[in-house]
Amino acid sequence: MYRFLTFLVLSLLVSAGLYAQNQSFTGYIEGGDQAMERNDHYNAFRLYDIAADPEWEEDRAYEERIAEVYYKAGVAAYRATAYREAEKYMLQLQSRPEITKYPLVKYFMGQSAFRQGNYDQAAANFQLFLDEQPNAPEEYRSAALAQINDSNWAIDALARSEDVILQHMPEGLNTENSDVMYVRGPNGTRYFTSNNFEFKKDTVSPKRQLSRILRQTGERTAVPLLNSINLPGKNVAHTAFNLEMTQVYYSVCDFRNYDELICDLYRADIGADGEWANPVKLDLNVAGYSTTQPSIGLDATDGGSFLYFASDRPGGMGGLDLYRAALAPDGSLGAPANLDKLNTAGDDASPFWYGPRQTLYFATDGRFTFGGLDIYKSYLIDGRFRRPVNLGNPVNSSADEAYYTRFDDPDQAYVASRRPVEEALFYSEERDVCCYDLYEFTPDPRLDLQALTFNKLTGKELPGATVALYKITPTGPELIEEITNLEDNEFNFLVEPGGKYELKATKDGFTEDLDAFDLASPELKDLSFIERRLELNPKVNLDIFTFNNVDLSELTGATVSLYEVNEDGTLTLVREITNPIGNDSHFDLEIGKNYRIEARKDGFGQAYTEVDLRNYSPDQGGTIRRDLYLGQTLEVYVIDGRTDDPLNNATLRLSKSDGELVDERSNPTGNDFYYTVNLDQPFILNTRREGYFPRTDTLVFTQQDLVDGGGKLIYYVPLFSDNLNDFLPFEVYFDNDHPDPRTTSFTTRLSYDETYEPYIGNEEIFKKEAGEGLPEEDAFIERGNIAQFFEQEVKTGYKQLQRFADALIQHMRSGRSFNLELQGSASPRAETEYNRRLSGRRITSVKNFLATYRDGALLPYIKNKQLTYTESALGESTAKLAKIYERLDQVRESIYSQPASLERRVVLRAGLNLKK
Asked: In residue terms, where are the TPR repeats (predicted)?
């Protein structure tokens, strides 16, 4: 049995006083109580309303019981859907001192406000009820919580009202009683159900109304069907034709109690004249329960026909449920199946199948509604019903809407509504309860788009997200609508066929998801319902702070790069941040991924860290902090120790003094290496290359080194060939009569570098004297020759001596021996013997240099004869004597000229290796 959409006419009741056995103040209260016991809420309200009249003030019980009357009148009015009256009496009750006896007042005020569309006021009353009545029955507290959510949903949904105009259908189709279920039949006929017929043989007083199916042809007045269909004494309603228009299904209902109906489904044949014949009760009815409101639909997926209906039979989810049963070509029906994806704990009824869009429309009060029953729709795709979508305002209102139907050619829809508007034939200020009227409208031609948000990590539905719909235009994305759904993960939009769109889903604590799609694409162009899945990954907030590793101060202006580490180890840049005024950078990370973070800044070495969230649980916290300390950049360049040329393909190993490896790598195509080091901390650098002696350097850099390098640390590593012959022969040069001028000793205590420095200091004297007395042009040439000599011979020779000494040290350390030939020469200004002794002193100065170089590194090898010398003090015997002898009397030519200077030298050559 059910009261859903009961077609009772309330305005034709005889005087409510008939229900009062004693027409007094207490008598009307007792009459109202009796009416409430039999669920006759409307008459109960009218009786309480009479009792509330101030004319009873003289009654001794009035003052004692008037608060009780206000409360009972308000509750009865609410149950009878007289919401304004319910609100009025509850407000009157609030001024009474007995208000504390009635803890549900705010609850009913909230419900009454909600059913009038005053959603803000409703939510406020429900919240006051929850705050003030913590011990109220749980069923009311749960309902209040749900209604707060409903109110918030309705407020948001009203802001998205569609541009649809509902037209009240004309009188004749609409009456002062309920009129529902407008459908198109064969040959242009229209059918609807009206509750405008008096039940003349009713045994209940006042008499009730009966519903009848009416047919309208053309512009003629609608007439009831024959009594073989509209059975006497029964409510006959709802019309559903099969696809061939050869059979029709309808409901036949009996009264149970005063305002309850119990219905069964019938089927009749349609004759050639359009008359209904051979009515038969269907076998799928269940005795004692309602089976009602039929609709026939064709599933385009498999081509099967189904009979949809509503029923309160056992095994449902609550109230009326939606069912369907397969309909065979011969009219036989399969076993009914509960549409559990659509049904709720409330009432789900008045199904209507719309074939062109494979859509089932139905009425429900078990989902978010604007009040009471709302029309929802669900698309059947690949045999599965999609999530139902509310048709929105203005199709739905704060009143009840049901019996939605829709037809093509033209595309027109119809709905039955109890909205209290002026056009409604039943409506008046005194009579705000009653009946359904029929409305028609042109449906919105746009397509339904449903976006669903999910937790990407768990796959579960994700409520509380915000989804924005953008239309892609030639000038860029254009925001169409943005919806925040705090209750579930469903977001419903309308889109133009063939348009290009993008969805953007966001939620605090989650990454965003973007979904672009083209409705003109082959996979979407023929769909009337678009479902898109948006997956948001729980995110972790990553806070990166950069510091100077030298003094631990905040390091501003660093660039921080976030990379995702792919399964193959490669890196994909996710985001890069440069903070010019701070040392903090902030990123959103996705749980389930692996990341590498790198920080860099000019003049500093790179720092990095890794954050692995592949096995991360959100319970571990939503924020991760990493501090990155950037040391100084060390640039190392490997060069040939003899030529200073870049030396590619070296291998470098940098480690800390405690042996901890910093880095080891080769550079096949270059000579540059980059490291991050800390100031005042020792590092060990090992360098090697094939064909060269390996080298180990201990590096310690100071703040001054950084200043001297202009914010950089640069270190050159000269590698020396392991073949000393690559260095030889070369010459080193001496000042006139040096070392130890005007002496005859064959040896000296001076080292070559001690004679070299003063010699270099005399370069300007040599240039001046070399051009003395010559014409200006010749003098210019001579001075240039001297400058070139000092640069290319003297200085280069000294540099070569140092590099050779370095190579010789490594040669000795490798265990090898070497014989070095030293050949000394002099210019022929003095006597031959003097020059020979001078040449010996020059050879000795070179030997002294090698013995003391780098703190005597070669001295042990000299002592143990691993390094030996072959000496030749030649004096002037190799000089180009002829040209010099011509001008020995001239100081310029014999001392300061380039030819004379070239003769004052020691030649270093590879000698005979005496150790085989």
From this structure: 103-136
3-state secondary structure of 895: helix
Distance of CA 61 to the CA centre of its chain: 68
How far does CA 520 lie from the centroid of its chain?
26
What is the rounded distance in angstroms from the CA atom of residue 36 to the CA atom of residue 222? 37
Q: What is the arithmetic mean of pLDDT over 772-794?
A: 93
Both tokens of 635, joined, read 């640039």
Asked whether the beta carbons of 875 and 905 are under 8 A apart, the reply is no
Q: How far is CA 476 from CA 115, 472, 728, in A?
A: 42, 6, 73
Domain boundaries, the chain: 16-158, 167-441, 447-536, 539-630, 632-719, 724-910
Q: What single DSSP character describes residue 99?
A: G
Nearest to 512 by CA among 489, 537, 532: 537
Residue 703 or residue 21, greater confidence: 703
419 Ramachandran zone, left/alpha/beta (phi>0; psi -120 to 50):
beta
Superfamily of domain 447-536: Carboxypeptidase-like, regulatory domain (2.60.40.1120)
Please tell me if the domain spanning 447-536 has the same topology as the one spanning 632-719: yes
Q: Residue 909 contacts by C-beta under 8 Å, 6 or more apart in sequence?
A: 728, 729, 820, 821, 823
Residues with Cβ < 8 Å from 567, sequence gap 6 or more?
Answer: none
Which residue in 259, 261, 217, 210 sits closest to 232, CA to CA? 210
First to last CA, the chain: 121
Position 509 scores a pLDDT of 83
Would you give the DSSP letter of residue 725?
A: G
Contact yes or no for 166/179 (Cβ under 8 A): no
pLDDT at 712: 77
Helix (H, G, I), strand (E, B) or coil at 201: coil
Q: Do 603 and 712 contact (CB within 8 A), yes or no?
A: yes
CATH 3.40.50.1010 fits 724-910, yes or no: no
Q: How confident is the model at residue 432 (pLDDT cuts 50, 70, 90)?
A: low
Are the CB atoms for 277 and 257 separated by under 8 Å? Answer: no
No. of helices (H) and no. of strands (E), the chain? 17, 46
SS (H, E, C) 335-359: CCEECCCCCCCCCEEEEEEEHHHCE
Whole-angstrom distance, CA of residue 830 vs CA of residue 743 = 12
Measured in degrees and rounded to the nearest 5, phi and psi for residue 619 equal: -65, -15
Give the CATH number of domain 167-441: 2.115.10.20
SS3 content of the chain, % helix, strand, coil (to 5): 25, 35, 40
539-630, CATH topology level: Immunoglobulin-like (2.60.40)
Tokens 């010559």 — which residue? Answer: 774
Residue 577 CA to its chain's centroid (Å): 18
Per-residue pLDDT tens over the stretch 633-668: 889 999 999 899 999 999 999 999 899 998 999 999
Q: How many other CB atoms sit within 10 Å of the CB of residue 248?
A: 25
pLDDT tens figures, 363-413: 999 999 999 999 999 999 888 999 999 999 999 999 999 999 999 887 899
- CA–CA separation, 575 and 558 (whole Å): 14
- Is-contact 642 720, C-beta < 8 A? yes
Structure token pair of residue 903: 């003769």
Q: Using only C-alpha atoms, what is the Rg of the chain?
A: 52
What length is written for the chain?
Answer: 916
User: What percent of the chain shows pLDDT beyond 90?
Assistant: 70
Fold for domain 16-158?
Answer: 1.25.40
597 contact partners, CB below 8 Å, separation of at least 6: 542, 544, 560, 561, 562, 563, 587, 608, 609, 610, 611, 626, 628
- Would you say residue 17 has pLDDT above 90? no
Q: Which of 240, 349, 397 is nearest to 305 (CA)?
A: 240
- Report the alpha-carbon distance of residue 16 to residue 695 in Å, rounded: 115
At 916, the pLDDT band (50, 70, 90 cuts) reads: very low
Tokens at residue 38, please? 């039999």
